[in-house]
């Protein structure tokens, strides 16, 4: 098997300059129109957007971001994502990146040069009450995307996860966290095997889900509004509670439930999403203890376990004031 080439700053610069020379396909306009971020040796400033020895995401000037697929599987996802974003865009109230150029940066390996959405990362800015309404609109819009059209584009269908299996894994992980004085394992007693069974995903509830609603994929303005959503390559047709869980980990359990409720989801998917998030957070932190890279897992754990009172919505006996 031929080893994939390593993307370097020189590789990226040559690609970007070739796009600029193509006259608008890459960055659409003159150098002055691109504005800011010009390197000393001409052309836009180019720098890695993420850490790592072989970054595949690069800032290009101040207005664009270049993403390189590192293997054939990522290439398939990148190409599918281009079509999916076009399908999703009319349905959601937040911005979705648009590609101004795409092709191959190496044989069989795709790239896309996208517009950079204005705003900061959800890791830096808190989501306001109005921002929660933006998230509600996102969840509503995803539910309205025709599933058959998404599947025609190649978006896979994912079976709902077993909450009971995840609960058992979380119980084991909580024991390790308890020994490390990181988490009170007794808190997981709220999720009994019977409750996990009651919160199983309902048949026929599958919708298009982003499946990667991390804080880093939320573009948030200084006013707390959610301006855009990145990272659509992991999207699947599946359990909507997974996106509620993602928001709980990213912006906190109360905000996630408020957004989901505004989007029309009832108690069952909200509770399922909360427990997916809580169990995932416990398992992830336990795994991170072995690497000492615990800052983000601790934040996600804190967000997922923020206390919340869920009012009765569908079942007269469903009030869970232990949440």
How is the main sheet built?
5 strands, antiparallel
If you compute it from the alpha carbons, what radius of gyration comes out, rounded to the nearest whole angstrom?
Answer: 21 Å
Secondary-structure content class: alpha+beta
Helix content: 40-55%
Strand element count: 10
Strand content: 5-15%
Q: Could you list some keywords that capture this structure?
A:
single chain; 323 residues; alpha+beta; 5-stranded antiparallel sheet; 3-stranded antiparallel sheet; 10 strands; 13% strand; disordered C terminus
Write the layout of secondary structure elements.
Layout: H1 9-21, H2 31-34, E1 46-48, E2 57-60, E3 64-68, H3 72-88, E4 99-106, E5 109-115, E6 120-121, H4 129-144, H5 147-152, H6 163-179, H7 193-198, E7 207-209, E8 218-220, E9 226-229, E10 236-238, H8 241-251, H9 253-262, H10 267-288, H11 295-304
Antiparallel strand pairs: 1-2, 2-3, 3-5, 4-5, 6-8, 7-10, 8-9
Describe it for me?
The protein is of the alpha+beta class. It contains eleven helices and ten strands. The strands form three sheets. A five-stranded antiparallel β-sheet has the order 1-2-3-5-4, sandwiched between helices. Strands 6-8-9 form a three-stranded antiparallel β-sheet. It has a two-stranded antiparallel ribbon with strand order 7-10. A hairpin with a 3-residue loop joins strand 2 and strand 3 (64-68). Helix 8 crosses helix 10. Residues 23-36 and 311-323 have low confidence and may be disordered.
């Amino acid at each position: 098997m031929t080893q994939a080439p390593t993307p370097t700053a020189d590789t990226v610069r040559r690609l970007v300059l070739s796009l600029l020379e193509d006259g608008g396909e890459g960055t659409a306009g003159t150098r002055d129109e691109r504005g800011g971020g010009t390197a000393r040796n001409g052309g836009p400033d180019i720098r890695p957007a993420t850490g790592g020895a072989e970054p595949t995401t690069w800032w290009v000037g101040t207005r664009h971001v270049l993403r390189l697929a590192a293997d054939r599987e990522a290439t398939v996802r990148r190409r599918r994502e281009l079509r999916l974003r076009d399908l999703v865009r009319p349905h959601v109230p937040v911005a979705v990146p648009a590609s101004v150029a795409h092709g191959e940066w190496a044989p069989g390996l795709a790239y896309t040069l996208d517009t950079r959405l204005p705003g900061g990362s959800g890791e830096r800015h808190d989501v306001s009450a109005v921002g929660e309404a933006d998230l509600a609109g996102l969840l509503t819009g995803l539910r309205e995307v025709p599933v058959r059209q998404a599947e025609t584009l190649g978006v896979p269908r994912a079976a709902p996860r077993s909450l009971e299996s995840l609960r058992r894994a979380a119980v084991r992980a909580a024991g390790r966290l308890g020994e490390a004085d990181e988490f009170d394992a007794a808190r997981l007693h709220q999720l009994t095997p019977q409750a996990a069974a009651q919160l199983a995903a309902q048949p026929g509830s599958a919708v298009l889900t982003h499946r990667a609603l991390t804080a880093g994929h939320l573009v948030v303005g200084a006013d707390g509004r959610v301006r855009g959503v990145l990272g659509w390559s992991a999207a699947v047709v599946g359990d909507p509670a997974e996106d509620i869980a993602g928001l709980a980990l990213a912006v906190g359990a109360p905000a996630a439930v408020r957004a989901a409720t505004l989007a029309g989801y009832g108690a069952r998917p909200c509770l399922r999403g909360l427990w997916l998030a809580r169990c995932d957070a416990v398992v992830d932190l336990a795994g991170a203890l072995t690497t000492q890279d615990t800052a983000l897992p601790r934040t996600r754990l804190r967000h997922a376990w923020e206390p919340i009172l869920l009012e009765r919505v569908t079942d007269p006996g469903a009030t869970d004031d232990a949440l």
